[in-house]
Structure formats: structure tokens, C-alpha cells
Design brief:
Elements: E1 3-7, E2 13-17, H1 27-32, H2 38-45, E3 51-55, H3 61-68, E4 72-77, H4 80-83, E5 90-93, E6 105-110, H5 120-132, E7 134-143, E8 155-158, E9 164-174, E10 177-186, E11 189-197, H6 202-211, E12 215-219, E13 226-230
Parallel strand pairs: 3-4, 3-6, 4-5, 6-7
Antiparallel strand pairs: 1-2, 2-11, 7-13, 8-9, 9-10, 10-11, 12-13
Length: about 240
Amino acid sequence: MELRTSDGREGHKGTGPGAITPDGCAVELYSRLPVGDEPDIIAAAVPAGARILELGSGVGRMTHALLERGFQVTAVDESAEMLERVRGARTICSPIEKLRLDETFDVVLLASFLVHAGDPEVRRGLLRTCARHLAEGGCVLIQREGEDYHTDLPRERVDPAGFTVRIVSAEPVGDGVDSVHAEYVFPDAVWTQTFRSRPLTKEQFEEALEEAGLAVDRYLTKDGIWVRAAAPGTR
């Protein structure tokens, strides 16, 4: 496979075979990564058959698993090359923060640590999009970084599928933002991704939700990584 390098938006970069999006994500890499227990966490937190707006769906790793569980999914991503890999779901190519659909959903899903965007204005835009598309009585499911995500480094995990994920470093670049460097090593290919991430304490995260007109309903996992939020008064 041809090795490619992409320098997209400021501070984001990716290398490796195949197409690479402006935020440094490799399409072929994400097509290979298995889905973990996230679909089960989501399914346990929302009504059966719910209409889900999945923001930042990528190639559909979670999309496909949610469809198999009977949910109706609208998958949104800014990369047309990512969305070409999605099967069985309605797809919309758009930056998340600019999305304005004339409809609302039972569940809005913001996974992949997107809430930790380095630019606070981007984070505000993401959360406003969540609130804007939320049906009355609905919920937003958000995936946060773990407490030691930027400090317990370097670290690596060998997946049962036979590849290794390394979080190599998280270097401060100012204003509370880190430049995170990750490597994905497969027997036949290696991908790297460098991106900017803003660590958020629990208090900072909840303040960001409040600013968008949302509030924590409950933390779905003991580590606090998965959160169910809603509009105040509807929890």
C-alpha cells in the first residue's frame, strides 16, 4: 500500500497507507479497528429502536454495530472518504459544528473524545450541535478521555486481533492543550496520528455542558468515560 502523509488543520497530522483526513485520521486504519464494548454501553442507556444521530461516525465502526442492535442511525462525518465505508445508514457529509438539520433525534452520540477539541470554540460548536438536534426527552451520549490519558505515557495495548496501539506522548503546546501522538502497528502497515486535545476535569466538562444547555444525567461507566446528558428538567 502507498504511504501517505497529511497535514490538515493546525496541529493535526497523520501518516500511513491510504487516504488521511484533515484531522489526521487514516480511513484504512479505522476500517480495520474493531468495535469494543461501546455499542453495548450505548444500547443499555437508550430506548430500544431509538433514532440516533451519530456525530463523527468515521467509517461506521459503531454505526454498523448499532444498526445490528435495531437502532435507526444517521451518520455524520466531515470526510466523504470515511462515509463511503458506511453501509445501511443514512449518511451526511458535514463538519459537526456546522450541522443544522430540520429534525431532532432521540439520541445524539458524540464519541471518539471529540469533546476534548483543543479549540474551545470548536468544542462549543460540537455541544451546541448536540443540543440543537436533541428531541424533547432525549439524551446525548458523550465519550470522555480517561483521567490518566495524558499522563500515563508512553503506554501500549496489544489487541487480540494482532495489532498494537501506542499512545507515545502528550506534549503541552499552550493554553491547556496537549499535542498527542499515537501509533497503530499492524503486521503489514503502520499508521501514526498527531492531534491536539484539551484535558477537561469533571468540573470543566460539566461547565461546558451547562454552557450548551445540557447537564449530566449520569455517568455510565465507573471510569467516567461514558456520560449520559440531557436538557435540564428532562433527566
